[in-house]
Amino acid sequence: FSKYSFFDFCHFCLKRKKMKISGFNILKFQIIVFFIFSNLVMNHFICRMDISQSERLTLSESAQNRIKKIKEPLLIEAYYSSDLPIEYNIRLELIREFLFEVQKQNSYYIKIKFLDPSSSIEIRKKVIDAGLTPNEIHEASETSKSYQEAFMGIVIKYESSQEVISDYFFVEEAETKLLRALRRIDQKKKMQRVGI
Hints:
Helix content is 48%, strand content 19%. A hairpin with a 4-residue loop joins strand 3 (135-140) and strand 4 (145-150). The strands form two sheets. Strands 2-1-5-6 form a four-stranded mixed β-sheet, sandwiched between helices. The protein has a two-stranded antiparallel ribbon with strand order 3-4. It is of the alpha+beta class. The protein is extended and about 80 Å long.
């Protein structure tokens, strides 16, 4: 079998089934092979493009520059409850994509951990100890009203400082809130230097 090429093998299989090989069948076969091969190759590359009109997943140039200036490990712990209503899952996915875009700007120093406070008591305690407060989600149907508590925030740990953003759920505000948190961390570092 090793003496024959892949195409010889396919040709043999087609002949064996007594199919008539025409130019059209060969073209279909080539298209299928090309499609499979291109998917295998593209599977190894991360290709993201923001095609929304508002470009809400695209970082501004100033945000990119600020993120690239980070020269120490920065950890973003993202705490999002998994039992969110369906309409919230779309926003959660947008926030995930945004955070991955942030990480892509400086992947050597920026790490992201997604944690689900509803998965264990330890994580929930850790979230509350960090200072994150749960958001109340109200749901109303024709017959009843209900609400649930859900965590939708991040904790940014940079050097010896920590910043908490409890309501980090709207991707339209994500860049501004992240930059403000980084600015507060910078101000804390300056205050520590002045104090020494």
